[in-house]
Design goal:
The chain is built from five helices and 22 strands. Helix 3 runs antiparallel to helix 4. The chain is of the alpha+beta class and 376 residues long. The radius of gyration is 23 Å and the shape is globular. The N terminus is likely disordered. The strands form six sheets. Strands 1, 3, 4, 6, 9, 12, 14 and 15 form an eight-stranded mixed β-sheet that branches. Strands 2-5-13-10-11 form a five-stranded antiparallel β-sheet, with no helix packed on it. A three-stranded mixed β-sheet has the order 21-20-22, with helices on one face.
């Protein structure tokens, strides 16, 4: 199946500049943090980045079933959101990231769908955040109206809302919302928000275009970014760019395996395996857009692009893990987002005979049962 971090050095400098002990301690903590971020060239979890579980809504397509890592919030007598695309519902738009995405609807009986998730870290009162969501509308969307008890068209545009709460399905504060999503191609929506209270639950809900309107409509959502803390006044990312970053050496064919091995420790699961660790990644060549993704997979993809004859094999296990197919889809989605050709990447379940192969790449990652290999 073809798919896809020195304190001693810094302290010496600071003691010379700030002889006062208390000032030295404060500046040391702040600048060491800044220095580390510059070296990384991106955000880390300690710098205000909250990872979401399964932000790409990867799951088996089907109507009325919330994606893995998300729970349904809505009337008990109504069905949950869908894992799209579902051809029988006349939804055919290819995913923006990975293979699947979520579809949420409003109905002519005044009900709306919502998905919720417990946050790995709470959003805090008075802090400013940014969440990027890819959203679109399908030109056709067929479902069933409980009001008329007949098949109905659900293709009208709706608004997308972001809510915060402190309990399961307890939507307490509307944090941000979009205009009605009209485009039938994927578009990035930036939701800036500053909660009045702290919340540990996040909800994505749909709403009618205007108050008082009730109709059948929908929105499709995919590839959510992590929640990134921002400077409240300037409304800019809390990020630091290292202007002197070295270009990643692609090396010779003989060095490719070693270079890939150096990136493997960055390929880590978070949120109990529902997603891969994400960071804010710098623009690639001839591209001015910052993006979110897994740093290890992103760098491996760039290495492989300069070695077109190389084939990367990723054997994912354990074989009886219920998240196996979900993990395969997530890894495949990251390689696809990084622009790697399907011809250079084989991602499949771990097989018994794989354990007899002795040329897998070395990795310091334990307990993940992922084997990596490079062939030509």
């Amino acid at each position: 199946m073809l798919l896809y971090t020195e304190e001693v050095f810094l302290s010496g400098i600071l003691k010379t500049i700030f002889p006062d002990h208390h000032v030295f301690i404060c500046m040391k903590k702040w600048l060491f943090f800044l220095f580390t971020c510059c070296l990384a060239g991106t955000l880390t979890a300690q710098s205000g980045l909250i990872q979401l579980g399964n932000p790409s809504f990867e799951d088996v397509p089907g109507p009325g079933r919330p994606p893995l890592g998300w729970y349904f919030c809505g009337p008990l007598n109504e069905t949950p959101p869908d894992v799209q695309p579902v051809p029988t519902m006349n939804v055919h738009l290819p995913a923006r990231h990975g293979k699947t995405y979520a579809g949420l609807v409003t109905r002519d009986n005044a009900t709306q769908e919502a998905l919720g998730q417990a946050l790995s870290s709470p959003i805090l009162a008075g802090h400013c955040y940014l969440l990027r969501i890819n959203a679109a509308r399908s030109a056709t969307f067929s479902s069933y109206s409980r009001l008329t008890e007949l098949p109905a068209d659900f293709s009208q545009p709706v608004r997308l809302q972001l809510w915060g709460g402190k309990g399961h399905c307890q939507m307490q504060e509307l944090l941000a919302e979009t205009l009605p999503v009209q485009d039938t191609v994927w578009k990035v929506y930036e939701l800036n928000f500053s909660p009045q209270e702290g919340y540990d639950q996040l909800f994505i809900k749909v709403a009618y275009a205007k108050e008082g309107e009730v109709y059948n409509g929908h929105v499709l959502i995919d590839h959510l970014s992590p929640i990134v803390e921002m400077k409240c006044i300037e409304r800019t990312f809390l990020r630091w760019e290292n202007k002197n970053d070295e270009v990643l050496s692609t090396g010779s064919d003989d060095q490719l395996a070693d270079l890939i091995e150096e990136e493997l420790p960055k390929v880590r699961w978070v949120n109990n395996g529902f997603t891969l660790e994400q960071q804010l990644l710098p623009p690639a060549a001839n591209n001015h857009n910052w993006t979110f993704g897994n740093p290890g997979i992103y760098q491996i993809a760039q290495l492989l692009k300069d070695h077109p004859d190389a084939l990367l094999t990723v054997a994912v296990g354990p074989r009886k893990d219920p998240l196996l197919q979900h993990h395969i889809r997530l890894i495949a989605a990251e390689f696809m987002a990084a622009g790697l050709s399907a011809k250079q990447c084989l991602i499949r379940p771990l097989k018994k005979r794989d354990m007899k192969r002795n040329n897998w790449l070395k990795t310091a990652i334990g307990g993940q049962d992922i084997l990596w290999g490079v062939d030509y």
